[in-house]
Amino acid sequence: MNNLNQNLDIKNTLQTTVFITPQMKQSLAILQMPIVELEQELSNILEENPVLEAVEDDGSDDLYDFDNNESNNLSEDIEDTQDKDKNLDNLVEKVTGDDWEEYIGYEKLDDISYKSTNDENSFDIEQVIGAKESLYEHLMYQLNINIIDKEERLIGEYIIGNLSEDGYFRIDIKDACSELSVEESLFEKVLDIIKTFTPSGIASSSLQECVIVQIKDMNCDAVYVDLAEELLAGYSTELAAFKYDDILKGMSIERDTFDYLLQLIKKTDPRPGLNFSGSDTKFITPDVFIVPNEESFDIIVNEKGLPNIRLNNYYIKMLQGSNLDSEAKTYIKDKVKNAVWVIESLQKRQKAIYKVVKSIVGFQEEFLQYGISMLKPLKLKDIAESTGLHESTVSRVTSGKYAMTKHGLIELKSFFSKSLESQDGDMSIGVIKQKIKELIDEEDKEVCLSDQRIVELMEEKGIKIARRTVAKYRDEMNIPTMSQRRRLRR
User: Which of 139, 235, 239, 241 has the fewest Cβ atoms surrounding its Cβ within 10 A?
Assistant: First the structure.
């Protein structure tokens, strides 16, 4: 047998690793949560952490205010907070450090608190909300933003108008296409677009599809989406009969994986349309209000329903005493650190939402004033550069959150639009398509416009665009070619 030569060496390697602590994860989660989820999360935190307590707002200034600003003007309150941020960051750094007792006295801990900025008398929500929005109105608004073509819009109106009360589309597609005299491929294209609208799961044809769509929108790993599809498709009977052992054996998965799948399914809404039925039902709570004023817009971060919280003085006094054993003292210290971190996360969430929305309003002011035709191209990177926040932070701030405007309820991500470069700057692709469609609608019926002629006319309007791009957008809007249009008009 040949001898095997082995070289065993010990080498030192320098490597940088990003370590995310549980506190950081919690802070990121708080930043990303919509107002309704945050309210529930704070309720859970208050139950789990005895050091934190909710207090009633009696109008006094007992809660810790880092800049001692009595104003109810949220714009001034948030913009003039550099010293406040430094003070709070300082406290958090010291309280959460290993030698925190050397840096901060116990008497300062009961000063740390979080106070909701909303004042019921500071603005009139009715100025923005008006009448409650129906499911039809909510979906039609999204349809008008996402679809320009008249035929596609008619199909979209048909689909939305024929949704069941619980939000399902159960009409046979062939029957619908026959009634509308349209191709199945075009009908299915519009239906797929509507299925991306909010509420998640709308226009589904079955309960399984509705649930899976909502799980996908939770941004969980694809493997769990596949497992959920397998579970609902192959084991619905066992699931209804609570025969969990049979499911575990059949799917060959661990119990903790199955429990996670159940948790995902329980978070879904099997009847998304019902949230809009009834006059007293409130489907989406806006995270921010964009209210017109004489000059521009006021931005009001919605924190109504969030409790005012502070550190419980009882536990602070316990730390000051000398009767605690080491285990109890360590427990209270850990809870204090977590409490301070939660308060800082809430403060930063409020400021981040305000800064991001204010920047969005600066870019999209004409859209907010005049509607979809004035939507400008906008990227997360633009907002990140404008606010000084990281792009991932902007993404978290805009994820799943809504703004109430004079045009209705708008998802923050709807303010972002792809663009096309032109000699006068970037222009929204939606606006480009609209201009191409207008040229074709207004063309001489005897002399149809070629794609090259459309390029020339667009350049006269200051829009530089390639012929193949015109052809691509025309195809996406299901507009026939020049020769096809000419034959159709004979």
Answer: 241
